[in-house]
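Summary of Year 1 activities. Much of the first year was spent building the evaluation harness for sequence design. The harness presents a backbone, in tokenized form, and records the residue chosen at every position. We chose the following record to illustrate the format because it has been used consistently in internal testing since the harness was completed.
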């Protein structure tokens, strides 16, 4: 088992050499704990997305001239409509790839969760075994699928513990 293969670090667990989870009511102490979510809250964070920005002044300045005035000034000076500075400015706005956008959104949602989540813990909560809440006797193919999901959960947990131990 994982418990026999790995020891709990007492320094990271308030001096206890076993998995001990206590109720923390102090607001400052809770801020230092990891933020989590339940299934209901996970759907909330995915639907709401990143935390809304706080009210603040705009981070941009209005252009000194309108584009039409700028174009007229360039034509008067013989630069034409497509000057090199205009091309540089136009090419500087590139859209990040979809992977970067998805990763940024996940990071922003995680920051939102850390800022407001009521679910706080030192030790992550154990996951419910697959099929635990299903009432009735599963068929043989369902049992095989449940066992496959359970073994995948065990593998993931062992990898996470090994990663934390190293």
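For this record, the design step produced the sequence shown next.
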């Amino acid at each position: 088992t994982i418990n026999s293969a790995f020891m709990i670090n007492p320094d990271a667990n308030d001096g206890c050499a076993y998995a001990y989870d206590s109720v923390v009511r102090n607001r400052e102490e809770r801020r230092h704990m990891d933020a989590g979510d339940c299934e209901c809250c996970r759907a909330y964070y995915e639907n709401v997305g990143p935390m809304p920005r706080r009210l603040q002044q705009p981070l941009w300045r209005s252009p000194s001239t309108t584009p039409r005035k700028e174009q007229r000034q360039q034509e008067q000076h013989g630069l034409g409509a497509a000057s090199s500075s205009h091309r540089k400015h136009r090419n500087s706005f590139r859209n990040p790839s979809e992977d970067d956008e998805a990763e940024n959104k996940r990071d922003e949602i995680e920051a939102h969760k850390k800022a407001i989540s009521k679910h706080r813990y030192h030790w992550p909560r154990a996951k419910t075994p697959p099929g635990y809440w299903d009432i009735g006797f599963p068929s043989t193919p369902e049992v095989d699928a449940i066992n496959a999901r359970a073994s995948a959960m065990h593998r993931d947990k062992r990898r996470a513990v090994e990663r934390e131990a190293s």
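Strands lie at 34-35, 120-121. Quantitative recovery figures across the full test set are reported in Table 2.
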